[in-house]
């Protein structure tokens, strides 16, 4: 048979928090019950997520995770980000819930991906559907681009923000004359995001200040558009 559908069932501490958050992202509640077990189902177009409430559950200890395959990670990210800005005045990049920015994933053949960490501590991993489009990002070249690719694997895929920070800090501590200014802006922007997720606002502010000092041509500015938008979102979150 070819018409099976798989729907993830994820834990949470509060159904109310889950429903409120996913409504911000454009989901609607399709089913909810309190008895015999607290349970809710939410849907956004063809994306279905179901949650069950557990008394005493700690979202920080959650191992809940699922993959969402989409034909356009950027489009879905922009929709989620717009919902966050409308509801919270900013894109949530620290604490729980939060969302990472789409980036090429070295451990996913260079295809794009981002993650939503919801109020239940569940990682909703949105990735490019390789069946629909298997066009990877260009292979990273240069030490900064390689450092960024390795840091994204640690921070965005594995959730090891400390290791991501170490990789980025090592790269930033060894500037070279031939460094690509766009790659530098990307590294600084991601380091600022990581700092916010680690609750280190002073470091985030330092990285944002360094981005302002990066000399970018008009062409560079266009290439660095995503990084510069990330820096703006981080600055708003920092304010």
Q: How would you summarize what this structure contains?
A:
InterPro entries: Glyas_Bleomycin-R_OHBP_Dase. This is VOC family protein. The protein is α+β, with helices and mostly antiparallel strands and 239 residues long.
What does the model show?
- By secondary structure, this protein is an alpha+beta fold.
- It has two domains: 9-128, 2,3-Dihydroxybiphenyl 1,2-Dioxygenase, domain 1 (Roll), CATH 3.10.180; 143-238, Serine Threonine Protein Phosphatase 5, Tetratricopeptide repeat (Alpha Horseshoe), CATH 1.25.40.
- The chain contains eight helices and nine strands.
- The protein has helices at 15-24, 73-88, 143-157, 161-172, 181-197, 201-212, 218-223, 225-238; strands at residues 9-12, 28-33, 39-44, 47-53, 65-70, 98-99, 103-104, 112-117, 123-128.
- Strands 5, 6, 7, 8 and 9 form a five-stranded mixed sheet that branches. A four-stranded mixed sheet has the order 1-4-3-2, covered by helices on one side.
- A hairpin with a 2-residue loop joins strand 3 (39-44) and strand 4 (47-53).
- It comes from Couchioplanes caeruleus subsp. caeruleus.
- InterPro entries: Glyas_Bleomycin-R_OHBP_Dase (IPR029068).
- This is VOC family protein.
């Amino acid at each position: 048979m070819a018409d099976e559908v798989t729907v993830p069932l994820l834990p949470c501490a509060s159904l109310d928090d889950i429903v409120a958050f996913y409504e911000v992202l454009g989901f609607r509640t399709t089913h909810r019950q309190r008895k015999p077990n607290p349970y809710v189902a939410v849907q956004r177009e063809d994306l279905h997520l179901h949650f069950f409430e557990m008394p005493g559950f700690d979202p920080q200890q959650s191992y809940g995770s699922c993959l969402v395959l989409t034909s356009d990670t950027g489009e879905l990210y922009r929709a989620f980000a717009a919902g966050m800005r409308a509801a919270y005045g900013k894109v949530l990049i620290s604490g729980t819930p939060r969302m990472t920015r789409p980036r090429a994933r070295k451990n996913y053949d260079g295809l794009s991906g981002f993650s939503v960490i919801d109020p239940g501590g569940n990682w909703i991993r949105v990735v490019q559907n390789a069946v629909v489009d298997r066009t990877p990002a260009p292979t990273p070249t240069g030490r900064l681009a390689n450092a960024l690719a390795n840091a994204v694997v640690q921070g965005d895929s594995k959730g090891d923000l400390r290791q991501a920070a170490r990789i980025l800090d090592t790269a930033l501590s060894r500037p070279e004359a031939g460094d690509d200014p766009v790659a530098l802006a990307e590294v600084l922007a991601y380091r600022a995001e990581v700092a916010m997720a680690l609750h280190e606002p002073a470091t985030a502010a330092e990285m944002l200040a360094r981005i302002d000092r990066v000399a970018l041509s008009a062409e560079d500015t266009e290439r660095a558009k995503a990084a510069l938008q990330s820096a703006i979102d981080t600055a708003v979150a920092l304010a």
